[in-house]
Amino acid sequence: MHISQVNEITNHRIISGSEYQWNCFPDARYLDYESEYAYVSVLYTPDTQSIYQAEVSIKEEEWDRDVKPYRWINPFYKQAYITEAESRNIDPNQAWDDVKWVDLETEEDWLEKAESIFNGKPFDTRVQVPLELDDKTMLDMCMKAHERDITLNQLVEEILLAFIEKHKNE
């Protein structure tokens, strides 16, 4: 993810920024953005303007318990962040009080949710999961979805939900 993408979805509404004091992200700085509806924060490197971590949360006065705070962490630095948080005796999953982050797996998912939340628009609360399939499996699944007259995404979602349900009580 690149800082220009965040600037675009937040309409450059930067309210503050400074150096980041932890060591898990090399030469990191942060920027905070604010709208009428939400806050966005990013940690990035000024050299390439690549993002290490991005967060979005709704403003407290707009708080609806169904709207959780979302976070994306660059997978190359995630373990370093978790290790440093734990060494500082901080729960790396805690956003604030008893509220936990919803960690997103893809940049695109975070950008979509952040843009909607920041602008007070409805959004899909499901977490997108990247899935890589070999060609044969992909073709088989496409055929099965076609036979059932549903989309490939619907079929994958059904399979994942059934798997989760099957293993929920183990």
Structural features:
35% helix, 22% strand, alpha+beta, 2 domains, two-stranded antiparallel ribbon, 170 residues
TL;DR?
By secondary structure, the protein is an alpha+beta fold. The protein has 5 helices and 8 strands. It has 2 domains: 3-118, no CATH class; 135-167.
SSE order and pairing:
Elements lengths: L2 H7 L4 E6 L9 E6 L3 E7 L6 E8 L11 E4 L4 H10 L6 E3 L2 E2 L1 E2 L3 H12 L16 H14 L3 H16 L3
Parallel strand pairs: 5-8
Antiparallel strand pairs: 1-2, 2-3, 3-4, 4-5, 6-7
Task: Report on the architecture of this protein.
The protein has five helices and eight strands, in the order H-E-E-E-E-E-H-E-E-E-H-H-H. The protein has 170 residues and is of the alpha+beta class. The strands form two sheets. The protein has a six-stranded mixed sheet, covered by helices on one side. It has a two-stranded antiparallel ribbon with strand order 6-7. A hairpin with a 6-residue loop joins strand 3 (38-44) and strand 4 (51-58). The model has no long low-confidence stretch (mean pLDDT 90).
